[in-house]
Write a structure and sequence with these properties.
The complex is a heterotrimer of chains A (about 100), B (about 280) and C (about 600). Chain A has about 100 residues and is mostly helical. In chain A, about 75% of the residues lie in helices and about 0% in strands. Chain C has one domain (about 35-260, about 275-565): Cytochrome C Oxidase, Chain A, CATH 1.20.210.10. Chain C has helices spanning about 1-15, 20-30, 35-65, 75-80, 90-125, 135-155, 175, 180-210, 220-255, 280-315, 320-335, 350-375, 385-405, 405-410, 410-415, 420-450, 455-485, 515-545; strands at about 265, 270. Chain C starts with a helix and ends in a 58-residue tail after the last helix. Classes of the chains: A mainly alpha (about 100), B alpha+beta (about 280), C mainly alpha (about 600).
């Protein structure tokens, strides 16, 4: 396992993990706080999803080691994300593309 | 018969089997929860203007539960790091904490569920009248009844019920709504108890899946997530208890197991990171 | 890759000592991929036959509406009671059989046979692995499948019978039928999907991790590539259906309204539900799986056909790389064509234009594959044995099925053809004389590997020719019926609409007598088809004990599954496997025989 998992590396990692843990807690507080500030409906949704995405990146990237993962796994996940976006986007676009309706 | 690469990574892929396996499984999980999230969005944009409920969940409890789950994520990664450093005792502590966090999450979730099952909305035959949310009193039932419906009321030939309406609160999206969850911690002014004739009721439903598409997707998503939490907790309990004997015979493989179960756990955490704002706050 | 070389052979040698696992662990709860493959194959062949029988009973009702079903009518009445009173099929029973024919054929027969059956048995052998990556998960996959099968089968005998909402189970219809069949269907599906997901993870991990030394990606037999892509389709397309299944189950059991719109009327009354759901959501999630599922049905079949054609033309496959890239392209595009099943749902022109375009694009790699296989035949010294006959028949049959799909992919042509017998004919040409012929080819081809005996050639050829003729007699007339406008779900075969006259002009605007009468011919052809399977069934069991004994490589093939003892022992290979060459080195100039196994080193 020559990919940065030696004992010294692990010790460095642990500091990083604790930093991320704190960042995640702050993120949670921010999400809740942002929900109580009225920025307009769409902006509220966008902000909440943005914070959630940042948190998700921190968890996936560092706790799940995705920032230093192997090519095979990247390939699988990229395909998955593309198909997920396809499913979501096309379904919702189909909902809005109604003949004769002025959406 | 031992399958190769259960412990050591294969040189050209750089992966041991279980790691590839768990990532493939997580890819399918992304599609599973992804489909449910897509359904959430479609149901929401499909809802008639102003009918999507807001502020019916208990935000402080939800926030606390989020913190619990995030804490379990750090302990699970610390458990793995402890093994990497060869500190089995630390592993035991961190892994134990993770399991405790999982249990705490489940307990808090059940309290939340129970609250919902005893909290009601009443719609009237008179379309002009707004629906009322609150706790109800039904003759012949002690305290808050669970899972009451207008059908059951009609079957029991009950003529009137009492409702304790929730106080009005202003919620997240800036829209005014009859407060839900935050109502019963005593904030706000409680409107007076009302008596309602069953004959006037069009529909009465607790905050159960059948209440609305909002609660339908809320319960489906959170229950599926809770199943994942339970599954993960069982596996981690096994690895904490009897499964940890492997540390003595094959420490590297055991560390891999902890890493793989940790990956699953982080994914469960990740799902919650999206579930929380989407269901509680937006 | 140095690690590989020493693990496998060492293990095999000392494993022989403690192989006594007893009957149950060896043949029933086995973790050996070969046993699991055979378990899958046998279970799914049984369901293939069962699903076919359901269809036969329906065909009788279509051809002779209201007449008692011959031979089995009485039996059906005894077992199912009221719904088959007097041996006559009731409308409810027709719906049950229709829904379950589709479900069983797709999820319990063809997919488990093509993907799980052949895949489990052949893939680890072809890549030189000792087993699947996760043998115990493999076993769990089979048993989850088996329980799913039991649930589906059991649902026929509950009050009200099995699901009636069609294999597509469109809501609100499926979730408002007041019987419990749909609930069983959904529980069964969740189990089957779980099984497929476990299988898919295992296949992908096995193909990525356990290839023998020297087995590079471009040396994989095409069948392995086909299975690899199929596994990805299952892995990523099935979960949305699982989600949809869970939601429909919620609708059915907990009274939610995921797929039920506001103001839904059931039995003349406004349904007592919250409403607010979207019926189209079900269709999106369903077809997000069910269109890739079409490729799950066809890709393993193409893989089998490619293996057999290369072996029996004694030539390398023409355009191996094109085949590989095409199959990858199909796998990718398969995820973004699904809504061409939904043109008639009030879909706007922009989105239907998108799906129309992707649908046309996906036909290109399909045509490349077919063309490569046809060109492979050119100049080959073809051996016309039974597997080869089935494989050869696959090519034009699949071609016909594919080409007739194009008009369905265009939204304007689909407006007329949607839900008619034309659709039935189109996809059955792909799945019945297409995939199922390929599966028969596979059974005849790999039977000697699994049993050490060959199936009888003469009866194999009888099976082939009669099936081939019967298949075409069944499905050709359906194109005509469909274009004449016959709807696919009519209980009386369209009799109600026969000879309907336009009240103003007096012209016949309903179905003409000729079109209706085709029903009888089709039904007789289906009976011929049933008879044609008898030689196969007898041959299958007879040859197990009395078939001609053969050596380890009876077809003189090059791929690794033929480089092991027959039947392969636990652990598969008795010698160390190192791969030196591509999968189809047939008739190499200067070689001493007309085939050079993948394990043969290059002599220079």
């Amino acid at each position: 396992m020559g990919d940065g998992h030696s004992k010294e590396d692990i010790k460095k990692h642990i500091k990083l993990y604790i930093g991320i843990f704190i960042a995640l807690l702050i993120g949670t507080v921010l999400t809740v706080a942002a929900a109580y500030v009225d920025l307009g409906h769409k902006a509220n949704i966008a902000l909440a999803l943005f914070i959630a995405s940042v948190k998700a990146f921190l968890v996936a990237g560092f706790f799940m080691h995705l920032t230093t993962e192997k090519k095979t796994i990247y390939t699988i996940l990229v395909c998955t994300v593309i198909f997920f976006i396809g499913l979501m986007a096309l379904t919702i676009m189909a909902h809005y593309d109604v003949p004769g309706a002025g959406h | 018969m031992d399958v190769p690469y259960t412990t050591k990574p294969r040189s050209d892929t750089g992966l041991y089997n279980a790691k590839l396996g768990i990532w493939l499984f997580l890819a399918s999980e992304v599609m599973l929860f992804g489909a449910l999230f897509s359904s959430y969005i479609l149901l929401r944009v499909n809802a008639l203007e102003g009918t999507w409920p807001h502020g019916l969940l208990n935000i402080p409890i939800g926030t606390f539960n989020t913190a619990v789950l995030i804490s379990s994520s750090i302990t699970v990664v610390m458990a793995w790091a402890s093994l990497k450093l060869g500190k089995f005792n630390h592993f035991k502590i961190y892994q134990g904490l993770t399991i405790l966090c999982a249990l705490a999450f489940m307990v808090i979730k059940s309290v939340e569920y129970k609250d919902k099952f005893t909290h009601y909305e009443v719609w009237f035959n008179d379309h002009e009248k707004k629906s009322i949310r609150g706790h109800i009193e039904v003759p012949g039932e002690e305290g808050n009844p669970w899972f009451m419906t207008h059908k059951k009321l009609a079957e029991r030939k009950i003529e009137t019920i009492k409702i304790h309406p929730d106080p009005k609160v202003t919620v997240a999206s800036g829209k005014e709504a009859h407060g839900g969850a935050e109502a019963h911690d005593g904030h706000g002014d409680h409107p007076p108890v009302q008596e309602i004739k069953v004959a006037d009721i069009k529909r009465l439903s607790a905050f159960v899946p059948a209440h609305s598409t909002y609660f339908a997707i809320y319960f489906t998503l959170t229950a599926l997530h809770a199943l994942h939490v339970m599954g993960g907790a069982l596996v981690m309990a096994y690895l904490w208890g009897p499964g940890s004997k492997m540390w003595k015979t094959d420490p590297e493989r055991f560390t891999n197991r902890i890493e793989v179960s940790g990956l699953f756990w982080h994914f469960v955490d990740l799902v919650w990171i999206f579930l929380f704002p989407v269901l509680y706050l937006l | 890759m140095q690690h590989t070389t020493h693990t496998a052979p060492h293990e095999t040698s000392h494993e022989h000592h403690h192989e006594d696992l007893g009957f149950w662990r060896t043949y029933v709860f086995s973790t050996d991929h070969k046993i699991i493959g055979i378990q899958y194959a046998v279970t799914s062949l049984a369901f293939l036959f069962f699903g076919f029988c359901l269809m036969l009973a329906m065909r009788w009702q279509i051809a002779y509406p209201g007449e008692p079903i011959p031979v089995v009518g009485k039996l059906l009445e005894t077992i199912l009671g009221e719904t088959a009173k007097g041996g006559i099929m009731s409308p409810d029973l027709y719906n049950v059989f229709g829904a379950m024919h589709g479900t069983i054929m797709v999820f319990l027969a063809v997919v488990p046979l093509a993907f799980a059956g052949f895949g489990n048995y052949v893939v680890p052998l072809q890549i030189g692995a000792i087993d699947m990556t996760f043998p115990r998960i493999n076993m769990a996959s089979y048993w989850s499948f088996f329980i799913g099968c039991v649930v589906m089968f059991f649902s026929f005998f509950i009050p009200g019978g099995a699901a009636q909402g069609g294999w597509t189970s469109y809501s609100p219809l499926a979730s408002t039928i007041p019987t419990d069949g749909q609930t069983y269907w959904l529980i069964g599906m969740v189990l089957l999907i779980t099984s497929s997901l476990l299988g898919a993870v295992n296949f992908i991990a096995t193909i990525i991790q356990l290839r023998a030394p020297g087995m590079t990606w471009m040396r994989l037999p095409f069948f392995v590539w086909a299975q690899f892509v199929t596994a990805f389709l299952l892995l990523l397309a099935f979960p949305p259906l699982e989600a949809a299944g869970i939601m429909q189950l919620m609708d059915k059991v907990f009274g939610t309204s995921f797929f039920l719109p506001t103001g839904l009327m059931v039995g003349g009354q406004v349904a007592d539900i919250s409403g607010g759901g979207s019926p189209l959501l079900w269709q999106h999630l369903f077809w997000f799986l069910a269109h890739p599922e079409v490729y799950v049905l066809i890709l393993p079949a193409i893989g089998i056909v490619a293996e057999i054609i290369a072996c029996n033309t004694r030539k390398t496959l023409w355009g191996y790389r094109s085949l590989v890239y095409s199959v990858l392209a199909i796998g990718f595009i398969a995820f973004i064509v699904w809504a061409h099943h939904m043109y008639l749902t009030g879909m706007g022109t922009k989105i239907s234009a998108f799906f129309q375009t992707t649908t046309m694009i996906i036909s290109i790699p399909s045509v490349i594959i077919l063309t490569c296989l046809f060109i492979t035949l050119w100049g080959g010294s073809i051996r016309f044995n039974t597997p080869m006959l089935f494989a050869l028949a696959f090519l034009p049959m699949f071609g016909l099925g594919g080409l007739t799909g194009l008009p369905l992919g265009f939204s304007f042509a689909d407006l007329h053809l949607h839900d008619t017998y034309y659709v039935i004919a189109h996809f059955h040409y792909i799945v019945a004389p297409g995939t199922i012929f390929a599966l028969f080819a596979g059974v005849y081809y790999w039977y000697p590997k699994a049993t050490g005996r060959k199936m009888n050639e003469f009866w194999g050829k009888v099976h082939f020719w009669v099936s081939f003729i019967a298949m075409n007699l069944i499905f050709q007339p359906m194109f005509a019926q469909g274009m004449a406008g016959m709807h696919r779900r009519m209980y009386d075969g369209g009799a109600t609409y026969s000879g309907v006259l336009d009240p103003e002009t007096g012209d016949v605007v309903g179905l003409e007598a000729f079109i209706i009468n085709l029903n009888k011919g089709i039904t007789h052809a289906a009976m011929l088809m049933a008879v044609a399977q008898l030689p196969f069934i007898i041959n299958f069991f007879y040859s197990m004990f009395k078939g001609e004994k053969v050596d380890d490589n009876p077809w003189k093939a090059t791929t690794l599954e033929w480089q092991t003892p027959t039947p392969p022992p636990h652990g598969n290979f008795t010698k160390e496997i190192i791969v030196y060459r591509g999968p189809y080195d047939y008739s190499l100039p200067g070689a001493k025989e007309d085939y050079t196994p993948q394990t043969e080193p290059n002599h220079k």
